[in-house]
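In line with agreed milestones, the collection of sequences with tokenised folds has grown. One record among many is set out beneath this paragraph:
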Amino acid sequence: MENLSYYEILEVSKNANGDEIKKAYRKMAKLYHPDRNPGDATAETNFKFCNEAYQVLSDEQQRSIYDRYGKEGLQGGGGGRRSSGGFDDLGSIFEEMFNGFGGGGGGRRQSREPTDKFALDLGVEMKISFKEAVFGCEKEVTFNSKKSCKTCKGTGAKDGKVTSCSQCGGKGQVYVRQGFMTFSQTCPACHGEGTMATAKCSDCKGKSYTESKESVTVKVPAGIDTGNRLRVSGRGNTGKSGVAGDLYVTFEVEEDSHFIRNGNDIYLQVPVFFTQAVLGENITIPSLTGDVLLELERGTKDKQQYRFRNEGVADVHGHGKGDLIAQVTLTYPTKLTSEQEDLLQKLQASFGIESKPHESMFESTFDKVKGWFK
């Protein structure tokens, strides 16, 4: 696992949301946990890699740094910082995974706290213009949020009256035997609640939650790019405990008709007439902050690039700015007047043998090919 990316370790895609990452981690942690693999050094090592991957991918800031710079970026300063929420997550996951495992548990939590039937974190997508992404802006986000039903206290049952689940006997988990091993999994009937409603709540129709349309204004930082996510703390769904999750806004940046973005660098195609390239003229081109002067070298070639330092996009993490790269595209006349054609022919003749480089290059080749047919 050492050479795998964090996404490969947890077997998730780079677009996986928080819930998918947590679910994948639980699966891998169960597979490699030392309690289930006593004396297996390989499983213990893999378990450590899974923990490391989850700590990074479950933290919005760490994940953003990792996506942009890899593990080296985390080691360069961001890697040492971990939000306390990541470790709390691991603790709750292990309690859920091993509560009641093997009939023991010792110091593990034996009592079950009520769980919610929906994820507390909420994700929405937002499309912004190229300009808004480059310079930053404030945008209003509208979304539907869930709140645990107060009438039934999030149970989905009329008057909050529930009975013990008949399938799991109120444990919230069922046990599956594979060979000589026994594994626990969330009860499919009560979804881990351990209880079932005797009758549906009239307010939430048995869903356990109500929905409402909400909006919040978010400050989009300069340099945001497609795929970046912004966390709005406490604006997600609200659970039984009254604690709300977070809202995650994923951005999609519209393309510009002239500027092409690659990371923090900006590319600009600059059409240049062939005579300008030959003579090496100075031309004015646009940049993100205004006009800049492009000084063409004499004999500028097609696709030749000119770099303007710090004229690109500001790094969203505050690490300077990218560059503007102007790429030349040579253009030629599509039509010639008789006068222009005469002038070009005279110009070509004035260069002598230099105007026909193919002749000197292929002279010996012509003689060689003729010899093939004698």
Remarks:
- Residues 154 and 208 are 4 Å apart (CA to CA).
